[in-house]
Write a structure and sequence with these properties.
With 502 residues, the chain is an alpha/beta fold. Helices cover 44% and strands 19% of the residues. Helix 3 crosses helix 4, helix 6 crosses helix 7 and helix 12 packs antiparallel against helix 13. The termini are far apart. The structure holds zinc ion. The site of zinc ion has 9 residues, from helix 10.
């Protein structure tokens, strides 16, 4: 059974503004007798549709629960013709009729339908005007050094457009790929889904990137933070504004259509990791992902910043430790791809390689260097295992054991909860007591796990244990071990100089 909805909105209490209560009264006179519900936003302006009760109503419209929406006046929905047209569009999709008491605007009547068409035509006109403004702004920006060059982002292809009488190109969604983009965003927008989960999902679906490779999580993160995909509306404007970005276009141009580019300050390079000090400009192309979903994903990435950084560290467990024997700058590991043969990792001087600095360092085979350092590590440790009489502290292997105990507690708690419905007073008392007890135990266990994880001091015996299974260790564990033992390594083609912490 569908219901009728009454929507009321009042921005501020003014003498001439009509209260939400009076608005509702007017609307109630127009009810047709079925059940109804009042959605009321008090203290919200009509400049956009970001209002809790309004959004709730729109969700129920989308769920097919509402047959008719009644308002006191048209501007209660929105002051923007565009927003209004978008809302009416949704109503029509879900066969919701719309009635406004003041204007006697009734979409169920022929004259109402005609008026609606006029509104929609004006909205379309406004949309096109804004689109043109966006394109003009983009063009004038391009002249000042912003450009759209480079690789076409995954999800898009190129189409020809005219900007300022000049034939040029802009992005257009490529259906096969933009479907993947939408899938990635809708998955990651769910709070419990991690980048790893998304990677796994794409792998399971056998979805590959343009080079025929599977997507890794870093690549996916790059996609997610790129505003080229979003259909930018006022929320996007607000988001980038609060993040400290300079925004080229005025807020009224953010109509939920265009994708955007984020440029880093100074250079023309597009930047995706942090936002502050960057410039956002609306792009001439249409975005793929709605603003709501995009922001959810973007914020998740903000809280998850560290994911992007260890890119380089993942290639070598000596990251941050190994330095150039000539100039002292960091060595970075690069992979040299070779046809038919296995790829080789090299260490290059970052000063020379990345910043074209003056340095005599050539290159070193990273596998050989790593093996050498590992040998040195084992030697160093063997000196110590003999001397060490330190008692073995609780190792991190206790964490899984504690975790099991927590699982047991959860199981017992669940079993208790299941008995609640059948319990008499005495049993109920016991259940309550026991649950409190279990909660306390659980808290203690969590504290112990936390302490263990904080305990960075790895003792010699434990490290020796690590070294025996070195090849199976995750890079992050190797980095942790190295950090405990090594201050720095200076490497050149002829020498490896390790400074120890122990
Ligand atoms: Zn160097």
């Amino acid at each position: 059974m569908k219901i009728e909805a009454i929507y009321t909105r009042q921005s501020v209490d003014r003498i001439d503004s009509i209260s939400v209560e009076s608005q509702a009264e007017y609307c109630e006179r127009e009810l047709m007798g079925s059940k109804y519900k009042i959605y009321s936003d008090k203290g919200y302006s009509g400049k956009n549709t970001d209002r809790p009760a309004f959004q709730e109503m729109m969700q129920e419209v989308a769920a097919g629960k509402i047959e008719r929406v009644i308002v006191y006046r048209l501007d209660r929905i929105s002051r923007s013709v565009l927003d209004f047209a978008n809302v009416i569009d949704v109503f029509q999709k879900h066969s919701v009729s719309f009635f406004s008491t003041m204007e006697k605007f009734d979409t169920a009547s022929p004259i109402g339908k005609a008026m609606l068409m006029i509104v929609m035509i004006f909205a379309q006109l406004e949309r096109e005007t804004i689109q043109q403004r966006v394109i003009d702004a983009y063009a004038s920006r391009s002249k000042r050094g912003f450009y759209m060059g480079g690789r076409i982002p995954y999800g898009f292809t190129l189409k020809e457009i005219m900007i300022d009488g000049v034939r040029t190109h802009c992005y257009a969604p490529l259906e096969s790929e933009s479907a993947v983009i939408r899938q990635i965003f809708s998955l990651y927008a769910q709070p419990q889904v991690s980048l790893g989960d998304v990677t796994e999902y794409l792998k399971a679906c056998d979805i590959k990137n343009r080079n025929g490779e599977t997507f890794n999580r870093f690549r996916i993160r790059d996609l997610i933070v790129n505003p080229v995909y979003v259909r930018s509306d006022y929320r996007i404007y607000h988001f980038f504004q609060t993040q400290g970005a300079e925004i080229v276009n005025p807020p009224q141009d953010f109509i939920g259509v265009n994708g955007a580019y984020l440029y880093s300050g100074g250079s023309n390079k597009r930047k995706s990791v942090s936002i502050g000090g960057h410039t956002l400009v609306l792009a001439p192309h249409e975005g793929i992902v709605d603003a709501d979903t995009w922001i959810k994903c973007r914020i998740k990435c903000l809280h998850n910043q560290s994911v992007a950084k260890p890119m380089k560290a993942h290639r070598t467990w000596l990251a941050g430790k190994i330095k150039c024997g000539y100039c002292g700058h960091a060595l970075t590991a690069k992979v040299g791809h070779r046809k038919r043969k296995a790829d080789v990792r090299y260490y290059l001087c970052s000063h020379k390689y990345a910043t074209k600095g003056d340095c005599d360092f050539g290159s070193l085979n990273a596998n050989k260097v790593d093996a050498l350092v590992f040998e040195e590590l084992c030697d160093k440790l063997s000196e110590f295992t003999v001397l060490s009489k330190k008692q073995k502290p609780v190792t991190n292997s206790s964490v899984p054991r504690l975790q099991t105990q927590i699982d047991d507690i959860d199981k017992e708690r669940q079993a208790l909860v299941q008995q609640v419905s059948l319990a008499n007073a005495d049993l109920m008392k016991y259940i309550n007591l026991r649950i409190t007890e279990l909660e306390t135990q659980k808290k203690e266990l969590y504290t112990r796990i936390y302490d263990l994880e904080q305990q960075q001091q790895i003792d010699v015996q434990e490290i020796t244990g690590y070294l025996q299974t070195w090849d199976q260790l995750a890079i992050s564990d190797k980095v942790a071990v190295v950090d405990c033992l090594i201050e720095s390594i200076y490497a050149s083609e002829t020498e490896l100089k390790i400074t120890w912490k122990i």
